[in-house]
Design brief:
GO molecular function, one term: dolichyl-phosphate beta-D-mannosyltransferase activity
Distance between the termini: 22 Å
Order of helices and strands: EHEHEHEHEHEHHEHHHEE
Bound molecules: uridine-5'-diphosphate, magnesium ion
Keywords: Cell membrane, Glycosyltransferase, Membrane, Transferase, Transmembrane, Transmembrane helix
CATH topology of the largest domain: Spore Coat Polysaccharide Biosynthesis Protein SpsA, Chain A
Radius of gyration: 25 Å
Largest sheet: 9 strands, mixed
InterPro entries: Glyco_trans_2-like, Glycosyltransferase_2, Nucleotide-diphossugar_trans
CATH superfamily of the largest domain: Spore Coat Polysaccharide Biosynthesis Protein SpsA, Chain A
Membrane topology: Multi-pass membrane protein
CATH class of the largest domain: Alpha Beta
CATH architecture of the largest domain: Alpha-Beta Complex
Strand content: 15-25%
Main location: membrane
């Protein structure tokens, strides 16, 4: 058992990993207890794993998990928490956008008795306008969609107490939105504010496709509102249709103007079909996730672990 665990998900981060290691070492050296740096290699295709091995051989505090393929950032965090042995666990990105120095501040708060200390971004540096705008919109949309209090502009950079971790480990849902789960768990939570730095090197590992999937996971995992909205829309459109039918019937029975109107007919057909397909899509998002859940596949598969588990040796095993 160590006092502090730092969980770092890494996916193709060969360009930053040494610097991250250095900065984390410097910070964790200033803490009052033992610590481990637990890297989770999320199926990197570059030299990330070799570098981790190099560090792990030299330094006892470095441990790692190696996935059999890329399972995604949220799953990597989950695996890190599964294997973290610390009394307090810090989750941090590898790219140094989250300044490691803040960990000391988080630890202070933890000692004051908080169980979750999350870091709220008051500014984001060096990110594209598109990223900032979509992130801004996403956090507000999420807030509007869910009844739960998920803090705005807050990523996964946070410290959690072991008892919160123990609860999270018991939640094996597949469409994972870890920050939502942490809010759901409750306990005593507080925020510290920070300015998000630029990526140290390399490019974002969150292309648009992953971002969309991530936001849909967040919203569908914590809200039925899209489904409610679909039924409300359906209801409203039925009312409109009913009125429209009465008008059409009136025109047919009492006037001679029924031959014209081809354009409006085509528009109506296209519009209603569009709406129906969108609603089916919304339902599909939920059904797909239900399907994923019932299959009960493991969240991730480990190829290898170093320094984790019961014995401090290289171990190979499958989880769950
Ligand atoms: N990451 C991961 N698996 C993925 C994508 C990202 O483990 O499939 C890691 C990545 O290495 C980094 C963190 O998750 O440590 C956040 O990713 P990134 O900095 O690219 O996201 P952004 O800050 O651009 O949102
Ligand atoms: Mg980043």
């Amino acid at each position: 058992m160590v006092k502090y665990s730092v969980v770092i998900p890494v996916y193709n981060e060969a360009l930053v990993i040494r610097e991250t290691y250095k900065r984390l070492k410097r910070v964790m050296g200033q803490t009052d207890g033992s610590y481990e740096l637990l890297f989770v290699n999320d199926g990197s295709e570059d030299e990330t794993l070799d570098m981790l091995k190099e560090l792990a051989v030299r330094d006892d505090t470095v441990k790692y998990l190696d996935f059999s393929r890329n399972f995604g950032h949220q799953i990597a965090i989950t695996a890190g928490m599964d294997y973290a042995s610390g009394e307090a666990i810090v989750i941090i990105d590898a790219d140094l956008q989250d300044p490691p120095e803040l960990i000391l501040e988080m630890i202070e708060k933890w000692k004051e008795g908080y169980d979750v200390v999350y870091a709220k971004r008051i500014k984001r540096k060096g990110e594209t306008f598109f990223k900032k705008a979509t992130a801004y919109a996403f956090y507000r949309l999420l807030r509007a969609a869910t009844e739960m209090d998920i803090p705005l502009d807050t990523g996964d950079f946070r410290l959690i107490d072991r008892k919160v971790r123990d609860q999270l480990v018991g939640m094996r849902e597949r469409s994972r939105f870890v920050r939502g789960l942490v809010s759901w768990v409750g306990f005593k939570q507080t925020a510290i504010e920070y300015e998000r730095d630029e990526r140290f090197a390399g490019e974002t590992k969150y292309p648009l496709k992953k971002m969309i999937r991530f936001s849909l996971d967040g919203i569908t995992s914590f809200s039925y509102k899209p489904l409610k909205l679909a039924s409300l829309l359906g209801f409203l459109l039925s009312v409109v249709s009913a009125i429209w039918m009465i008008v059409v019937l009136y025109l047919k029975l009492f006037t001679h103007s029924t031959v014209t109107g081809w354009s409006s007919l085509v528009m109506a057909v296209l519009f209603f079909n569009g709406v129906v397909l969108i609603m089916l899509g919304v339902i599909g998002e939920y059904i797909g996730r239900i399907y994923d859940e019932v299959k009960q596949r493991p969240l991730y598969i480990l190829k290898e672990g170093w320094g984790v588990g019961h014995e401090k040796e290289k171990v190979s095993y499958y989880v769950e």
